[in-house]
Amino acid sequence: MNRLFISSILVLSTLGACNKDDSSTQQLPPPTQQGKNILACKVNGQMHIYSGKRTTFNDNGVNYDLYLDKLRLYADNIDYRDNIEIVFPVNPDSIKVGLKYFFDLADMINPFGEYRIRVNGVTNEYKTGKQSGFIQFTRLDKDVAAGIFQFTAYYNNDSVKITEGRFDITNP
Fold first, then answer.
1. How far is 84 from 18, CA to CA, in rounded Å?
2. Contact call for residues 52 and 62 (beta carbons, < 8 A)
3. pLDDT score of 112
4. Residue among 166, 163, 136 at smallest CA distance from 30
5. How far is CA 118 from CA 68, 87, 161, in A?
6. 3-class DSSP assignment, residue 148
7. What confidence score (pLDDT) does residue 25 get?
8. Mean pLDDT by 10 residues, the chain (172 residues)
9. 3-class secondary structure, 116
10. How far apart are CA 63 and CA 54, in angstroms?
11. pLDDT of res. 80
12. What is the chain's percent helix, strand, coil content, to nearest 5?
C-alpha cells in the first residue's frame, strides 16, 4: 500500500511539473535579417518585445527611417507605456555592416539610445552616456535594418540596462 501511495505521488508531481508554465525559460526571439519587424531586448533583465509595423506617428510597433543625415530606429509598445529609440546621426550610406559603433550622447557624431517609460502620466527619458553601449548592424539596405545592440541609459540618478538587444525591421 505504501509503495502504491508513493508511486501515485511521484506520478502526480511529474504530471504537474509538465504542465507548469515556467516564464523563466522564455527567451528573446533569435536575431534575424529577413525584415520580421521586431525589436527585442531585456530592460533591467525583463524581456521587452516590440513587434508589428509602425505605419503612422501614433501607431505602435517598430520602424526605421533613413534620412540624409541620420538613421533612426524606433519601437513602441501597444499601450505606449514605454519605447526605445536609437539615433545614428550620420549619413546612413557611411554605416558599415559588421562594425560595432559605440553610444556616446556627448559626441553627436556617434549614435545614442533612449529608453522612455511613462509612469503616472509622466514620461521619464533615459539617455545613453559616454561609452554606455553599442549597436552593430548585420544588414542595412533600402529594405531592411537588422542588428544587435545594448546600452545603459540614465535619468537623474537612475539607470536602466538594455541588454541582448536585436532588431530586424523593414523600411516603410
1. 36
2. yes
3. 86
4. 166
5. 31, 20, 17
6. strand
7. 57
8. 42 36 65 94 93 68 84 77 85 90 69 86 85 91 93 92 95 74
9. strand
10. 6
11. 60
12. 15, 50, 35
What's the rounded Cα separation, in Å, for the pair 95 and 54?
23
Q: Which three cell numbers stand for residue 103?
A: 553610444
Residues 64 and 171: beta-carbon distance below 8 Å? yes
The pLDDT value given to residue 58: 58
Quote the pLDDT of residue 18. 36
In sequence order, what are the beta bridge partners of 160?
Answer: 153
**Backbone Cα Rg of the chain:** 21
Amino acid identity at 41: C
Q: How far apart are CA 110 and CA 90, in angstroms?
A: 8
CA 73-101-83 angle, to 5 degrees, is: 30
pLDDT at 53: 78
Query: Is residue 165 packed enough to be buried (19+ CB in 10 Å), middle (13-18) or exposed (0-12)?
Result: buried
